[in-house]
Amino acid sequence: MPLQSPRPSVSALHPLHVLLGAYPIAFFSGAFLTDIIYLNTAVMMWANFSVWLITGGLVMGVAAAIVGIGEALFSRNKSSLRPGWFHSVGNALVLGLSLWNAFVHSRDAWTSVVPTGIILSGIVTVLVVIVNWLGTSHTIRQLTGSVR
Known about the structure:
The chain has one domain (about 15-145). About 75% of the residues lie in helices and about 0% in strands. It is built from 4 helices and no strands.
């Protein structure tokens, strides 16, 4: 029976990283949704929901980043981490834009959402989905052994 190379393994922190990474996706896309509702109703409650969702996404995004950095530092297979740089830089961009968005949403009434707030929320929503999709697909390729 021929010897097979061992399947690449993921860090013990990986499940926690994936779990924490789901929260920013939900929070940032929820903020975009509440911005759209505010734009159509002008009820300030929706703008308040947006700023709380953005704040929650920032908190959970930082937590996911800390676990992701720990996962990278303690990974046994350092060569498989190269494609993860796009994921890391992309999520850093998401967090930076979201911090800016939180400051924009701290303004009064209509200017907290229109036009800058809703544009930033839309950009962040698209970015967070794409960046995390690519990060997850990299992990799946790594686990199935199709990483080059």
